[in-house]
UniProtKB/TrEMBL annotation:
Major enzyme class: transferase
Name this polypeptide is given: ATP-dependent 6-phosphofructokinase
InterPro entries reported in the protein's UniProt record: ATP_PFK, ATP_PFK_prok-type, Phosphofructokinase_CS, Phosphofructokinase_dom, Phosphofructokinase_III, PKF_sf
Physiological role: Catalyzes the phosphorylation of D-fructose 6-phosphate to fructose 1,6-bisphosphate by ATP, the first committing step of glycolysis.
Catalytic activity: beta-D-fructose 6-phosphate + ATP = beta-D-fructose 1,6-bisphosphate + ADP + H(+)
Stored SUPFAM superfamilies: Phosphofructokinase (SSF53784)
Amino acids binding substrate: 125-127, 162, 169-171, 222, 266, 272-275
Keywords recorded for this protein, A-Z: ATP-binding, Cytoplasm, Glycolysis, Kinase, Magnesium, Metal-binding, Nucleotide-binding, Transferase
Cofactor (UniProt): Mg(2+)
The protein's Enzyme Commission number: 2.7.1.11
Pathway(s) it belongs to: Carbohydrate degradation; glycolysis; D-glyceraldehyde 3-phosphate and glycerone phosphate from D-glucose: step 3/4
Amino acid sequence: MRVGLLTGGGDVPGLNAAIRAVVKRGEGEHGHSIIGFRNGWKGVVDGDVMPLTRRDIRNVLPTGGTLLGTARYHPHASDGGLDAALATLEAERIEALICIGGDGTLNAASKVAAAGVKVVGIPKTIDNDVWGTDASIGFDTAVSIATEAIDRIHTTAESHNRVMIVEVMGRHAGWIAVTSGIAGGAELVLAPEEPFDIGRIERFLKHRHRAHASFSIVVVAEGAVPAEGTPMHYETQVGKFGEIVAGAIGERLKVEIEQRTGFDTRVTVLGHTQRGGIPTAADRILASRFGVAAIDAVTAGTSNVMTAIQGEQVVLLPLDEVAGKVKFVPQDLLTVARALA
Ligand code: F6P
């Protein structure tokens, strides 16, 4: 079989482990030819292909980024994009396509599947907000990086008696903020799931600094917003693909906190450091499991599904059930973050 493979959307650590698993299992076990498309859906539209053999995936397991390249590009969003993508798949005699991506890439995958192409998706996003799977590739690494950063910021916060704001990624859901906030012992965690009240933050910080501490760590997800009817006005600034302008909420909070409390405040925007470098063991394992499950599904003739981890099991979910939904942080996890302030 000729099986296409692409990585789309923002990169994450662990993509190469997934590519490696697809190629090793696909070529070695099933005898398929794996055809890589460069730069996500853009490569499918442009016919930009590279054969992927076992030689190409040597030593890539611990590496970050994606050897296929990636792009924020949705074929159905540009004129003739979908037709061009379908034409390339036909010209390359692709019998099934494995798409590794987040919500945008998987949404495009379900559109291509609706046009009759056999498609299997693999979820990746450091934001961890793909619906239906307990975890997506890249999340574990991002949480480790954010937790280490918070640990480091703790010591300088304490030395200078400062409020330190740490802005992490997470547009729609605050998975990185909540989990790294718990793991790093943040005093306040602000996530998109629970719009915040700046008045409450002011009272909390003043009380804490009066009563028992001279410093505080505030972890804020880039997609966090003030609650309606509360005294802070702020509008999320987004780019062309809905990506949030890094640093905007962190800087805005710094000004508000300094004005309201008089405490010396600094912002650290972790930004793309959360997506760079080597994947954790957990991400390598998840990516390897998803890669094997995806190529096995293709081999079995299964289509229009996404690999997902639920508990200990890797399962296949209908793509249509997943596309367009967001997995939010559940209440119990938000409660833990609040309880440990
Ligand atoms: O989609 C994941 C994500 O990491 C978001 O949290 C963030 O808003 C976005 O990517 C940043 O995208 P870009 O790399 O295109 O600036």
